[in-house]
Amino acid sequence: MALERLAIVGTGLIGASVGLAARRAGVRRVTGYDADPEFLAFAAERGAVDEPAESVVAAVEEAELVVVATPVAALRDGVRDALAAATDGATVTDVGSTKAALCASVEDRVRFIGGHPVCGSEARGPLSGSAQLFAGATWFLTPVAETEPERYRLLHGFVASLGAVPLAIDPVAHDRLMALTSHLPHALANVVLNHAGSVRVDGHEPLGAAGGSLRDMTRVAGANPRIWIDIFLDNAGELRAALGEHRRRIEELERALESRDAGWLARWIGEAGGNRRRLLAEAYDDPGALQRVRVHVPDRPGVLSGITQALGAEKINIEDFELDHLSPERGGTLDVLVGGEAAARRAADLLEAQGYSVIVSPAFED
Amino acid sequence: MALERLAIVGTGLIGASVGLAARRAGVRRVTGYDADPEFLAFAAERGAVDEPAESVVAAVEEAELVVVATPVAALRDGVRDALAAATDGATVTDVGSTKAALCASVEDRVRFIGGHPVCGSEARGPLSGSAQLFAGATWFLTPVAETEPERYRLLHGFVASLGAVPLAIDPVAHDRLMALTSHLPHALANVVLNHAGSVRVDGHEPLGAAGGSLRDMTRVAGANPRIWIDIFLDNAGELRAALGEHRRRIEELERALESRDAGWLARWIGEAGGNRRRLLAEAYDDPGALQRVRVHVPDRPGVLSGITQALGAEKINIEDFELDHLSPERGGTLDVLVGGEAAARRAADLLEAQGYSVIVSPAFED
Q1: Torsion angle, CA of B247/B252/B258/B259, rounded to 10 degrees?
Q2: B252: CB partners within 8 A, 6+ apart
Q3: Which end of chain B is more exposed for a tag (fewer CB within 10 A), N or C?
Q4: Are residues B30 and B164 in the same domain?
């Protein structure tokens, strides 16, 4: 049985995208409310909401499913208001990045089921919304003992209809998992960058001399404080536990360096290599076969299209693709990942024929 | 006065690339030696060396400049042998990733000047060598009090002729700088990945649930142990100092979380945002104006060329470009960075006309 009437409370990036994706999936009627009238008007204009409402009550009163998509700090009130206004038959969910505190605070454990789409966009507001935002994304759901199968089935089916992959998890386990896979990396990006940025070495600025490893590692540094202060504080307990374990592991490395224990370092690097392959096994059929084709390219329009076009014409599938920008004067380094040595050799031949100098190497070393 | 006679000791990736780039730059004669006859034969076959020699002595005896490009562990012996065999007029340099211990170990502080090209390729062997390897790369040089201007000028000019950007630095400062900008990030990538890979959370594998932040942060995890064990051990002192300071900064964050200090977190994130912009200021003229154009793309040949070609035809310059691969079934997310909102809008219109759903946002938030 498909969903007919959806309500969205909070029509920013995520809320508007839920609306757009829901309408594409065939939901008949999407009502919406946002405390910011401009956000709501934008969302309506873009077609994310077909009935903008003047209050939470008006938005949710006839809905079968209510998605609360306010900022993390306003979720508790938003969920409470939605539960108070919705019918007994309605199910309420949210899209917050942390789950334990919110789920523990909600008294109605039958009608509320927590949720968290992992879509990783830092943009804000309904103008950035997209029906594609959830395509292929993991969408955590946190059913509990009281959850009724029929309500869970409705929510699971709805999330899948948006293109996401629903994954059930305990609320506390969710926050522990997020601490390890997202909140710790975000925190470390800030720590590492502020460390490198706070010193000068013999007149040299570390940030001016930084290579690709520091740049990759700090890609998420300085991420939107309006979102991240709330996430860090809301998940402070799990994040502190992860930071403590991180420090313990750093001390272990320091001891290995102090005793010049090459065997320990070899095992440690080997373990990291294995973990990297496991991480990538999610994304690639056979990470071990991937080859990196590296080309130095000038900084001008059309260069990338020439290269990708040549590979596309030869039916060489690009598995991954990264341009590491050096500077306007010096151009950048282009890494193209392709499957198998034969494809890599063909790619290199094609690009060398275009006058590029090409370096081929295994993408993930054993 | 251009260099006429160059000798290369160690014709692996770096050595062979030095040979190829030197010949392209007009060096008349390149002799070479490698302890592995196969490496040497390959390098000669590719034209990186025009006179393969049977010993270090034979390789360097007539050279004006000797580049020692052996693995880090063999550098000390390589430099000593080269200095012993070369003429008084010859200058000897190396390409090792650490400088303090090597420079301190060399007695002849007039004829030896240390060097380190930062080219970040993990590939090995002369087959991967490329005349382009150093294009735009920083190449550290470590002149000391005894260095003669004429020798430094020769080395500086040679490095610049390969396309690199020579940068003079004290050997100890070099290693401290590398600890912060490269060795610490590499070590943390291993620590973070082994941490996430060592636990299961309520049955869930963190590595299977990892988002983009963990993947970006651990891109260099498990990097070639043949290279990295030597680097970590050779720079153990500076790396341990950096790790200690890193732990101190983690404890500071733990305290802020414990006292729920939102003001501290806001300042800390703001500082990281500023540092991120400083880091990127090296690469982009105006990082603040950059816009991210995000598109969800299927996993099949020709998709990237269609997109890049459309942008190239409209003279929209792609400043940066990353395909975040999700899976063969679900495709991936393509991020294209372009300069300015007008260009981003044109790019979005073009891609929407091709049927893609597009999200535009500022690349680096204030």
Answers
A1: 170
A2: none
A3: N
A4: yes
Q: Does the beta-carbon distance from A214 to B177 stay under 8 Å?
A: no
Could you tell me if residue B277 is inside a domain?
no
List, in order, residues 6 or more apart from A200 with CB less than 8 Å away: A206
Q: Which residues does chain A have within 8 Å of residue B315's beta carbon, measured at their own beta carbons? A: 301-302
In a shared domain, residues B184 and B304: no
A51 and A92 co-located in one domain: yes
The chain-wide mean pLDDT, for chain A, equals 88
Query: pLDDT (tens digit, 9 = 90+) per residue, A14-28?
Result: 999 999 999 999 999
Whether residue A213 lies inside any domain: the answer is yes
Provide the pLDDT for residue A366. 46
| Residue B282 pLDDT exceeds 80 | no
In the numeric block, the tokens 């405390």 are attached to A35
Residues 6+ apart with CB under 8 A from B47: B19, B20, B23
**Cα-trace Rg, chain A:** 24
Asked if residue B42 is part of any domain, the answer here is yes
* Domain-ending residue, one of A108, A139, A169: A169
Q: State which residue of chain A sits closest to B308, comparing Cα positions.
A: A305
A179 and A146 housed in the same domain: no
What's the number of domains chain A is made of? 3
Per-residue pLDDT tens for B103-145?
Answer: 999 999 999 999 999 876 555 556 567 788 888 888 999 999 9
ipTM for the assembly: 0.83
pLDDT tens track for B180-192: 999 999 999 999 9
User: Testing the interface with B: which of A176, A245, A308 to mutate, by most B Cβ within 10 A?
Assistant: A308
Strands across the sheet containing A65-68: A51-52, A29-33, A5-9, A65-68, A91-94
Mean per-residue pLDDT over chain B, rounded: 88
Put simply, the answer to whether B270 touches A210 (Cβ < 8 Å) is no
Name the residue of chain B whose CA is nearest to A122's CA: B361
Contacts of A253 in chain B (CB under 8 A): 187, 191, 243
Q: Å from A87 to nearest chain B CA?
A: 34
Statement to judge: residues A158 and A181 lie in one domain: no
Question: Rounded distance, CA B163 to CA B342, Å?
Answer: 34
**A98 lies in the same domain as A224:** no
**Same domain as A23, residue A98:** yes
Q: How far apart are the CA of B256 and the nearest CA of chain A, in angstroms?
A: 9
Helix (H) or strand (E) holding B51: strand B51-52
Instruction: Write out the two tokens for A150.
Output: 């029929």
Can you tell me the distance from the alpha carbon of A298 to that of A83, in angstroms, rounded to the nearest whole number?
57
Coil/strand/helix, residue B33:
strand
Which stretch of A193-207, B49-63, B332-346 has the lowest confidence by average pLDDT? B332-346
* In the predicted structure, residue A54 carries a pLDDT above the cut 60: yes
Q: Output the six-digit token pair for B299.
A: 């996993």
Question: Could you read off the pLDDT of A247-305 as tens digits, one per residue?
Answer: 999 999 999 999 999 999 999 999 999 998 888 876 666 767 788 888 877 777 777 77
Domain interval for residue B192: 174-260
Q: Which helix (H) or strand (E) holds A30?
A: strand A29-33
Asked whether the predicted pLDDT for residue B273 surpasses 80, the reply is yes
Nearest CA in chain A to B125: A361
Q: What is the pLDDT of residues B66-93, one digit of tens each?
A: 999 998 889 999 999 999 999 999 999 9
Tokens for A88?
């007994």
Distances (CA, A) of A239 to A186, A190, A335, A357, B248: 11, 14, 34, 45, 16
Sheet holding A165-168: strands in order across?
A114-117, A138-142, A165-168
Give the minimum alpha-carbon distance from A173 to chain B in angstroms, rounded to a whole number: 6
Contact B44, B23 (CB under 8 A): no
